[in-house]
Amino acid sequence: xxxxxxxxxxxxxxxNAGKLKEFRVLAEALGRNWQLELLPDFAKFxxxxxxxxxxxxxxxxxxxxxxxxxxxIVFADDSGLVVPAxxxxxxxxxxxxxxxxxxxxxxxxxxxxxMKGLEDANRGAYFVCVxxxxxxxxxxxVVSEKVDGVILDAPRGSDGFGYDxxxxxxxxxxTFAELRAEEKSQHSHRGKAFRRLLEVLE
Length: 202
Description:
Maf protein, alpha/beta, 6 helices, seven-stranded mixed beta sheet
């Protein structure tokens, strides 16, 4: 007999507790009966090298790579910030924009330095999130979403992570770091992509 709880469990191929929290908040807000967990012993696996030129390739590659260690559905996301005025940077290099091991503050500092002097019309940006889900070596789904915003010249807010403090979301008049968890889950690129993933799985 199949364990019902196990069949409704999704394993996030990440060690990022912040991401897991966002996904759990969204699943709960949607009333979806899925159990979300970090992939057990994720830190023990050799790190997957996200060297592909697109978010989709990185997400799918990561999901396939880590799914070898689980019998359940493993999902991975690749997300990042795209600033057209910077030629698409940070893009797929968002997490490593300021170098390996750089803090969120250092990444933001580099971004603001690169954008120094840009007029408002050139401060547009968008977050992208691609999520891939794999089970037993077979792709279950690959979904993508984005959200548009503006990069401020100084951080605002204390929640969120990554570039959230400088990503201003005009419809709500706040940065992503100023949004309540429920608000962010509803409007963020990751929230929208995860909502699409659950629709596909169900």
